[in-house]
Amino acid sequence: MTTASAEAARTPEVSTPATPPRFSARTWERIRTGGLALWSGLALLYLFLPIFIVVLFSFNDPKGRFNYTWEGFTLDHWKHPFAVEGLETAVANSIEIALISTAIALVLGTGMAMALVRYRFRGRGAVDLFTFLPLASPEVVLGAALLALFLTMNVATGFVTIVIAHVMFNVSYVVVTVKARLEGMDRHIEEAAMDLGATEWTTFRKITLPLIAPGLAAAGLLAFVLSLDDFVITNFNAGETQTFPLFIWGAARQGVPPQVNVVATALLLVALALMALNLLVQRRRAAAAPAT
Amino acid sequence: MSLSRRRQLLPYLLLAPGLLWLAIFFLIPALNQLNVSLWSGTPETGQSFDWNWSNYGEALSDYHQHIIRSLLYAAAATLLAFVIAFPLAYFIAFKASPRLKPLLLLLIILPFFTSYLVRTNAWQTILADDGWIVNSLQTVGVVGDDGRLLATATAVITGITYNFLPFMALPLYVSLEKIDKRLIEAATDLYAGRFTAFRKVTVPLALPGIFAGSLLTFIPAVGDFVNAELLGTPRQYMIGNVIQSKFLRVQDYPEAAALSFVLMALILVGVFAYTRVLGRERLTEAAL
Predict the structure, then answer these.
(1) What is the per-residue pLDDT across A84-142, written as a single tens digit (0 to 9) for each?
(2) Which of residues 115-134 of B touch A (CB under 8 A)?
(3) I want to staple B118 with a disulfide (CB 3.0 to 4.6 A). Which of A264, B15, B188, B218 is the partner?
(4) Which residue of chain A has the CA closest to B17?
(5) Helices A20-56, B153-178: inter-axial angle, 10-degree rounding
(6) For the stretch A16-41, what's the b/e string if a residue is b when 16 or more beta carbons lie within 10 angstroms of its beta carbon?
């Protein structure tokens, strides 16, 4: 019965190959692709709308405290990005914290990823799950819990506690990223090195490290950006220390100065340059691969 | 002998520093939080641990509205993010040329290299009362003449959807990209219509991405307080706003700690239920 009805449904298409039904199927395909492309374009527009605003309003010349309506073009804020009190310190703190916490998280996280991918040991599954937990907890819970610990331990919050907090959430991101790279790697090269008498440390330095370098770069960039941009956890553990996101939060009530837009745009340009560089290196590697 | 002993110890040595860091600054704070949530007393008179479970009762009765609102907003934002991101991810995975793909993926990530707060602040400008969006919506009558977008639930949900969209789009893309296109061809060769092939082949194979994407969107969304604070009013405040203000402004630590645990419990229950539902759906899909 089902076969018969399927046969019946198919008959016209088979008997008249190049006539309207098939043509209309192609038209439908075109409409579908067009619709998808249109939707994707609109989605990207949604993604970029606030970015246009951020960039545009870095050139705005607001008359009052609020930088919400367009009041004329000026380059003043680009010439003097740190004319607002406290912004320079906040940005400097943010970059310093991001550099330190990324370095620590990279070392700790790479060690953990190596252990999890390269060795079979008791409790491996539990460690794997435990490392993932910070990523599955809302930031407000992580930040509040850490603050409560510092309070009960009588630890004064400030620069150091921010670094501690950032390392905590970044370790998990590094583990996930580096693990993915290690899992895709050919183990035999490492084994060959060890068969030839290289110690674990030499093998790691000369074989593993160069091979996972792109993974480390990706993990480092991710950790750096996450640290630079973290607001929620930092807000709980900052004490009197200012970071760039904390500065914006503090300024939000009285109106965010256009200089913040300048710094944000500049950071975006740096990120764009780094990503373009990464893409270029990958293309070159891909181009070089068949030759070797 | 000593070499093999070293080999056995090595994974633990590699793990130890990172694990120790996570134990001290993630696990212990969580346990400490549980302890704090059972304190009684006020900051003025001194607080101490005495199994004060009533903190949980008070937290639930005082703030059940915030909890429900958080769940609703996060669910709405997750659904919206899916509706926006799925066709986009599908287009990149199936329709875009190999040269265009990396560029499109870059375009998805790029906006998120500007600060979270700067982006949310830009939404304030976009949704402002005399902004062009509100004006055009007023012209077509969607928004009343004195209606507004800023300081409404719509604004908060728009902001949340926006801020967590890549967490939805990227896992969706990854799972769609992995699908062997020949499977879909096989389905259509076997007389499945386009839609049937999509429903019975593409969607089930994309389920891991849908699962990961919605969790990665929902979890940060349900705990968020930045969007409600910057784009809403106290009437849109979520559970995150309460936890944040109890901790940092009122310093009512026990109730804030209790609320944190309620939030975590809700997330765990949600994840579990979601796994069960999706798991069962996949089972029924396989049975058909």
Answers:
(1) 888 999 999 999 999 999 999 999 999 999 999 988 888 888 888 888 888 888 999 99
(2) 115-119, 121-126, 128, 130
(3) A264
(4) A108
(5) 130
(6) eeeeeeeeeeeeeeeeeeeebeebbe
- pLDDT, tens digit (0-9, with 9 covering 90-100), for A6-16: 444 444 444 44
Contact A36 B95 (CB under 8 A): yes
Q: What are the CA-CA distances from residue A191 to residues A181, A198, A236, B3 (Å)?
A: 17, 9, 47, 15
Residue B33, judged by CB atoms within 10 A of its CB (0-12, 13-18, 19+), counts as buried
Report which residue type is found at B18.
G
Q: Which one of A67, A146, A175 has the shortest CB-CB distance to B29?
A: A146
| Residues A97, A162: Cα–Cα separation, whole Å | 7
- On whether the CB atoms of residues B230 and A252 are closer than 8 A, the answer is yes
The CATH number of A85-256 is 1.10.3720.10
Residue whose pair of structure tokens reads 């929902």 in the numeric block:
B218
B148-163 pLDDT per residue, tens: 888 899 999 999 999 9
The ranges assigned to domains in chain A are: 2-56, 85-256
B66-287 is classed in which CATH architecture? Orthogonal Bundle (1.10)
Residue of B25, B113, B240 with shortest CB distance to A225: B113
Residue B139: which residues within 8 A CB-CB, separation 6 or more? none
Judged by a CB distance cut-off of 8 A, whether residue B18 touches chain A is: yes
Q: Is B77 on the interface with A (CB under 8 A)?
A: no
| Cβ-based contacts under 8 A for chains A and B | 231
- The residues of chain B that CATH labels 1.10.3720.10 are 66-287
